[in-house]
Design goal:
The chain is an alpha/beta fold and 418 residues long. Helix content is 40%, strand content 18%. It has two domains: 4-348, Peroxisomal Thiolase, Chain A, domain 1, CATH 3.40.47; 360-415, no CATH class. The protein has helices at residues 4-10, 41-45, 52-59, 74-89, 113-121, 137-150, 174-177, 226-230, 240-262, 279-289, 301-304, 311-321, 360-391, 399-415; strands spanning 24-33, 38-40, 63-65, 98-102, 127-131, 156-163, 183-192, 197-205, 213-214, 237-238, 271-274, 330-337, 341-348. The protein binds oxa(dethia)-CoA.
Length: 418
């Protein structure tokens, strides 16, 4: 029996049997944002029984960024990274078809953080959703974005990895509090006829290991209660050793697999951008097992720690800034995390890495666009509030209720049934 792909390719891949022209998902913009507040190993040594020396030698981390206060949320960092990615690509937010935000620490359980980003950008024709695959989330999101582009469903997809994982940390647990930090990174994917971009992906999961890295409460299994709070069940819990063993195995496997899918040998990989969890994991998986030289592995753990879904895009942005990414290079982005999940994408880099200088009027135009987006958002919220509170429930018995019924009828005539 023919596989679905064989069947459809025999019978014409495009609509009405017209073969589709080849489409590729190219990375055309990138941006990152981290909080200003720095928490060093020395600061942590004042909080728990640890030392700068222990943390450096066991993890490679020297400091991490921590979001300050309730105003610096995941969506705030995500919006900063997203705006930068749009600026680099010189693409307006109005062109976006889809926004995917990979996060485990969204601003709310509902609405999705991606919708808050959509609103702040004024991306009026974009769909938006969050993707939960823990630290592998960015790789998963890239894979979904590529699929949407290759299927012809989207031309521009904004992919974000954003976290304020510090909000889940038990600051008395020395095993976890030393590892994590906050931040966001974003890339803009665009449909292109030029061969290259995200060429291959591989994703994996093993739900039997869910309890190796998890937050027990806050979901439908253990909704928030006095008991869950008292028992610290809203904090991140981790079996560090087990995660370490799993990570070293899957990082190497996923890199091998995605390179094979892209048709590359391991020697043909120019740069690996791995999830930044522990320097020893990078060393033992990518360098020792795959024999990829350390000079080809991006690491910025020392300054940011593990920023979960944000770590790969942040590392990618820094590699670009440092001139380590050049056109026609082969990149592998590889991650692992809670779930358990893992994944890798193979990217043939095509975008120019010295972005054209931004003209002042373009910057001004963008700023005006974002101000207009926030004004529009405010206006819509206000209208809804007035509508809900001032008019009250539809009820023939009260004057407010009758007014509501007349307004509803008028809206139906004007805008149709909704
Ligand atoms: O995105 C995925 C996120 N998670 C990960 O990637 C985690 C992967 N795992 C790891 O990175 C490592 O397992 C850790 C960094 C968490 C721990 O390193 P380790 O080398 O596996 O340490 P260990 O758990 O074997 O502990 C060794 C010793 C223990 O003391 P004893 O029993 O030998 O006396 C720990 O109690 O180190 C102790 N220890 C610490 N000492 C000082 C554990 N944490 C600390 C600490 N400071 N922060």
């Amino acid at each position: 029996m023919a596989s679905p792909i064989e069947f459809f390719s025999r019978n014409g891949a495009g609509p009405k049997g017209v073969p589709r022209s080849p489409r590729y998902a190219q990375i055309v913009g990138w941006g990152m944002a981290v909080p200003d507040r720095v928490l060093t190993n020395h600061d942590l040594a004042l909080m728990v029984d640890t030392s700068d020396e222990w943390i450096r030698t066991r993890t490679g981390i020297a400091e991490r960024r921590i979001s300050s206060g309730p105003k610096e949320t995941t969506s705030v960092l995500a919006v900063r990274a997203a705006r930068e990615a749009l600026r680099v690509a010189d693409v307006p937010a109005s062109a976006l078809d889809l926004i995917i935000c990979a996060t485990s620490t969204g601003d709310y359980i509902m609405p999705p953080t991606a919708c808050l980003v959509q609103d702040a950008l004024g991306a009026s024709k974009a769909g938006a959703f969050d993707l939960g695959a823990a630290c592998s989330g960015f790789v998963y999101a890239l894979s979904m974005a590529r699929g949407a582009i290759l299927a012809g469903d989207a031309d521009y997809v904004l992919v974000i990895g954003a976290e304020t994982i510090s909000r889940l940390i038990n600051w008395n647990d020395r095993q976890t509090c030393i590892l994590f930090g906050d931040g966001a990174g974003a890339v803009l994917l665009a449909a292109s006829p030029e061969p290259g971009g995200v060429l291959a992906t591989t994703l994996g999961a093993d739900g039997s290991g869910g309890e190796l890295l998890w937050v027990p409460a806050g979901g439908s299994a253990h909704p928030s209660s006095h008991e869950t709070l008292a028992n610290g069940l809203h904090n991140l819990r981790m079996d560090g050793k087990a995660v370490f063993r799993f990570a070293t195995r899957v990082m190497a496997e996923a890199t091998r697999e995605v390179a094979a899918k892209a048709g590359w040998s391991l020697e043909q990989i120019d740069l690996v951008v791995p999830h930044q969890a522990n320097q020893r994991i990078l060393q033992s998986s990518v360098v020792n097992q795959l024999k990829i030289p350390e000079s080809k592995v991006v690491s910025n753990l020392e300054r940011y720690g593990n920023t979960s879904a944000a770590s790969i895009p942040i590392a990618l942005c820094e590699a670009i800034e440092q001139g380590r990414v050049r056109p026609q290079q082969n990149l592998v982005l590889v991650g692992f995390g809670g779930g358990l999940t893992w994944g890798a994408v193979a990217v043939r880099w095509c975008a120019p890495v010295t972005p054209h200088p931004t003209r002042w009027w373009k910057t001004a135009q963008r700023q005006v666009g974002y101000q207009a987006a926030s004004l529009r958002s405010w206006w819509r919220r206000s209208v809804r509030r007035v509508y809900t509170f001032a008019l009250g429930p539809a009820d023939e018995a009260t004057p407010r209720g009758r007014l509501r019924i007349s307004v509803d009828r008028w809206r139906e005539r004007r805008f149709g049934k909704r």
